[in-house]
Amino acid sequence: MNLRKLFCSKTQRALVRGWCLEGKFSFTGKCFLTNEAKPFKVGIIGAGPSALYCCKHLLKHERVKVDIFEKLPNPYGLIRYGVAPDHINVKNTYRTFDPVFINPHYRFFGNVHVGVDLKMEELRNYYNCVIFCCGASEVSLPFVQKDEDNTLSGGEKQNGKQSGLFHARDLIYFYNNMYNDMRCRAVDNYLNSFENFNTSVIIGNGNVSLDIARILIKSPDDLNKTDISNDYLKVIKRHNIKHIYIVGRRGFWESSFTNAELRELISLENTKVILSKKNYDLCCLLKSEETNTNMKKRQHEIFEKMVKNYQEVEKNKELYKTHKIIEFIFYFEIKKIQHIDSAMKNVQFELNKNVPMSYSSFKENKVLETPLVIFATGFKKCNFTENLYNKSVQEYSQHIAKHKFGLFKAGWFDTGPKGNIATQILNSKNSTHLVLNFLNKVDNFFNNDISILLQQKKIPYVSFDDWNYLHEMEKQMGAQKNKIGQKFSQTGEVLRVLKDRMGKSQ
């Protein structure tokens, strides 16, 4: 039976020997019939939500020991570096994993890059199987201009001019204080190269666009109490963002916005969120029956409110001066970007080519003038880790067939960058059940310790106790500035702080 199809009904789930996803039929250990005194060892690559949920499920079984490897010095992945700083309650969901970290069968190895510091051949000699939970951190771009802006190179110079084109990841990593990220420095350098810009264009129809618009338009004083980057607050004070355009090539009926995020946006103080009546009408004309859900009906009401806001500010133009504006534009896509000077550029849009010719009355060319264009157009799996996984599957196919070594994947590395935390929980459960089914058939066990190998290779790894020490320091540094925390932003700084501790607490 294909375990991926066990989500259909309780009857089917009851057929699983000894375990059930809802927990009604608690795991009895029936699948581990031999060598009951010996532990199974599982390595997990990555320490984001999917990795930690996999770990949480695996550790329900006493015979399973789990080691997590993370190339950054800290766990939590997107919870720490993807969630917007003003979403403090969401960031605090990391406490969900406290039971994992106090389990004696779990170990964390931060600052260890699998594929660089540790080879898969080495992991094969220490673990029954390895789960790839590396997420999807590479950018996905729908648009490539053929002349001077062939790539989104952020602050890199194009024909002597800084481009000012960034992916959402670059800005998110910047305001979330991502370690050693050159793209963060590119954003910082670019925004420091001029003063007082007041417009920005964001491309994309998802919650990431809403997060970025909210963070850009909020007062630095409102953000100061969060764990947001001090460098971001410093540079954003040089500017006065008054008008943000959120442009999508589809309509709001097909968007992936959530209603909670949209409500938060239209509730911002001193801000008018608007949608033109003409653009709203186009969305309604192109509405498909598939979008006729209760959630989308409620979302429709939110966009109707934006139309009323638009009519209000058009009637009283003074509101454009007294309020900040976030304007949605649907069914338009980039045609060309032309530089005006070292900062400003004209972003030319045209009606989506997939809009039927019968709607030609809506056809127009829009030109938005801005120094900053953010592409919130999604992510894809990292080429390095995907190649590592595919190469390993091919190289160890014989071992996998004989249950001598297993390779699995979970989270966005498995499904691609889609879904919310609930879908990641479900995917992690599914993946760990496949792992348990595999462990039922193994007959080789390992007593060796990977930490000894890391010490021999002189790889300075960060244990979870080390991370706790760092986290307390971050909270103390934040408290001195009336913030909930102040993150370390340089790996070298972390290694100096932990110099006398590292490798001694596992």
TrEMBL record:
Cited InterPro entries: FAD/NAD-bd_sf, Ferredox_Rdtase, Ferredox_Rdtase_adrenod
Alphabetical UniProt keywords: FAD, Flavoprotein, Mitochondrion, NADP, Oxidoreductase
Catalytic activities: 2 reduced [adrenodoxin] + NADP(+) + H(+) = 2 oxidized [adrenodoxin] + NADPH
EC number: 1.18.1.6
Cofactor or coenzyme needed: FAD
A GO molecular-function descriptor: oxidoreductase activity
GO cellular component: mitochondrion
The keyword Ligase belongs to this UniProt entry's keyword annotation: no
Main location: mitochondrion
Keyword check for Flavoprotein: yes
Family: Belongs to the ferredoxin--NADP reductase type 1 family.
Protein name: NADPH:adrenodoxin oxidoreductase, mitochondrial
Record organism: Plasmodium fragile
Organism placement in taxonomy: Eukaryota, Sar, Alveolata, Apicomplexa, Aconoidasida
